[in-house]
Amino acid sequence: MLDDKDAAEKALVAEREQLLVTLYSIVDGVITTATDGRIELMNHVAESLTGWKQSAATGKPLSEVFCFKSESPLSTSEQRALLIAKDGQEYQILVGSAPLRGAEGVVRGQVIVFRDETERLKTEEELFKARKLESVGLLAGGIAHDFNNILAGLFGNIELAKRKIPEGHAAYSYLQVANQALERATNLTKQLLTFAKGGEPLLEAVSVEQVIDAVVQFNLSGSQVKAEFVFPEDLWPVNADKGQFGQIFANLTINAKHAMPMGGTLHISAENISLSADKPSRMVPGDYVKLLVRDEGIGMTAEVLDKIFDPYFSTKQTGSGLGLATVRSIVKKHKGSIFVTSEPGRGTSFTLYLPAEKTDCNSVISAATQNVDSTISAGRVLVVDDEDIIQKVLVDMLILNGYSVDTADEGRTGKDKYLAARHSGQPYDLVIMDLTIPGGMGGKEAAEEILKVDPHARIIASSGYSTDPIMAKYWDYGFKGRLLKPFRLDDLTNEISRIQNQ
Fold it and tell me: Could you tell me which residues come within 8 angstroms of residue 64 by beta carbon, excluding any fewer than 6 positions away?
């Protein structure tokens, strides 16, 4: 009898050891309880998620160790719940339970199995946000070409009309207001296009101090908020799209101004940062300019903070909900990073890291401040564009500057005109070529044909798609310059002057 008893006890110990090995090999959290609801066993995953060691939890009521919130009590059906650990940390979990039966089928307790879903749900949420941004970008990209053509026609005709009447004329102020309204429409289109897939920012070495100072002061004009800047003398330029870089700080400034309705100070500082490969970081090793934008405003709750980069999310009735979403999209497209911290009543801080352009700082500042010689010499220009309104605006602007102008409504016709003029001994001095011409040869193909015959041809790429890769690196495709629609008269004359002075 004694041998049988010893054998039974050894078998029981072996069974328990096997059970423990099984429990500890399961990747989900597992807790078993007795019939009275008190804990008997926990595996390592359960210990980690609840914050309780088995030695401390054994014998305690399940409700004291496994604290969760859900819409219904534990059951055999798997359900979502919020697990609150011993230290207060919260986890999104999937949890289910089942009766624990003995050898004869008698219920001797309960087993609870749960899985941490926090990271997976966060990933899904980020993917959902990304799809929303892509949808906005797809919509913007689809209308950008036609919309920017319309804006270019409106801008051009307003500018030409303003030159026909004196500033004191009764109609002049109306034209000014119309021009401002178009500026707002242009900025909205640009913000939407930052979400579009494909294309690259139009990168150049940008003076951080000059752009930020101008943009911030402009957007704080007339408000009770003042700006305080701290920029070191040896601050690197950033490798950025100048317009989009300015948009970042315009949006952050507007956001800060709304957060300080009674006034306050907007603190902006910058410093050079080099990240090496041996330092742990979520960012790619390299040289960055670190920018800190801190307000003294009302701050945000954790719930609001989690949504600020969502498109169309806004805490203001008059907001579009695109401001901070645009900032994040621009930073991402520049291969940078952005972080935000905020507490109610303690203001908000945005920290940005943007890739540096370690050229000589003085040369960048000099290039940014020098006056552009907008005097353009007379000559012959060929305008290739399928939109009549764009053709007419460009023709009138160019004639205003002393040029004689011919037009073509698609690339093949433009190519033939260019080659014929060259053959006749009266070549064109410049070609302005629209890249996208539905139903006809586009600017890229036409430029390739012209450059085969005349490698020195001066061709300007023109497009309403700022995301077109040709606009980012026009020189790789043989173009001498670019003209982004909607353009102003100054944009046109400055680009032509730059090309003529090369």
Answer: none
